[in-house]
Design brief:
This protein is about 70% helix and about 5% strand. The chain is built from 11 helices and 4 strands, in the order ααβαβββαααααααα.
Length: about 300
């Protein structure tokens, strides 16, 4: 179990570093093609940060409103509160707020910018269809997202994607307006200048797609990490594995889910399209792989 957690953390760090290297490469190409220097980077960074910070501080309220979630009172759901409070204590976290979505499709998500402003939201279908061990596994998974600051990590990823998208768009506009060609002429043209322009054009076209794929890869890796950390909290990986099997087998769609919120849920509430290529564009790893990873885990109680 410890090896799974360590491996997932290392892979997450590698993905973030690769993402940062991509940003630097796009910045270099932007400077070479447009000649704007660092001014364009500063503008792109400011725009991306403003939009990301606004979303970061208000994302929980927006997501809860979109999902039609309501506060779950302790009197109405003592069973849920008991599990959340116990796992928060085990994780060393403040007790998150509890919310419920009135929907028979089983699912759950966590949101909030930090542990002090965190929320765990479950559907009524999850409460009805999971036994205690399975529900503990699901809540522990969401608690791990909170403890691992995954909302903050996703915000950083959004900023990097925003920077790349803006710089790429400006590079393409520079080509259409002839700025890239003028830049090449100012440098004396030649084969080297033409090669730089070709590299810049390729990066301008491909980098937004690569950035999006990197963001999705980080999301999938954090799901694996939350599974491993959740299993550590409960000391019972089989509980979460059993819950994932039920979630995968349940045919009911979650009516309030959409593409903007799908990445938050413990399993993708939208239709899961099979195929290796489609896996690259998924916010979640295949459930079969998550179950297999959990079934390989063991915890030495000695």
């Amino acid at each position: 179990m410890y090896e799974q957690i360590t491996a997932n953390k290392v892979k997450s760090v590698f993905l973030v570093l690769f993402f940062a290297a991509l940003v630097l490469l796009v910045v270099w190409a932007f400077e070479q093609v447009t000649g704007w220097g660092r001014g364009g980077l500063v503008i792109a960074l400011i725009i991306s940060l403003v939009s990301a910070v606004g979303g970061y501080y208000s994302s929980d309220k927006i997501v809860l409103a979109i999902s039609h979630a309501r506060p779950a009172s302790k009197e109405e759901y003592p069973y849920l509160y008991n599990i959340v409070e116990g796992l928060a204590l085990a994780a060393g976290l403040p007790t998150p707020g509890c919310y419920v979505i009135d929907d028979t499709a089983p699912n759950a998500f966590a949101t909030g910018r930090n542990p002090e402003h965190s929320v765990i939201c479950v559907t009524t279908g999850l409460l009805q269809k999971m036994n205690r061990l399975e529900l503990e596994g699901v809540i522990a998974h969401e608690m791990s997202h909170i403890k691992n600051y995954d909302v903050l990590l996703q915000t950083v990823a959004v900023v990097m994607v925003g920077i790349i998208a803006l710089l790429s768009d400006w590079m393409l506009r520079s080509f259409w307006w002839g700025g890239g060609r003028r830049r090449n002429q100012e440098k004396g043209g030649g084969q080297a200048g033409a090669i730089l322009l070709v590299i810049g054009l390729i990066l301008a076209i491909l980098s937004p797609l690569i950035a999006q794929l990197m963001q999705l890869a980080i999301s999938r890796r954090r799901e694996f990490l939350a599974d491993a950390n959740g299993a550590m909290l409960t000391r019972y990986p089989a509980g979460l594995a059993s819950a994932l099997k039920k979630l995968a087998a349940d045919p009911e769609p979650l009516e309030v889910a959409n593409k903007a919120t799908a990445h938050l849920y413990i399993v993708n509430p939208l239709k899961n399209i099979k195929g290796r290529v489609n896996k690259l564009f998924s916010t979640h790893p295949p459930i079969e792989e998550r179950i297999a990873a959990l079934e390989k885990m063991s915890f030495d109680k000695t």
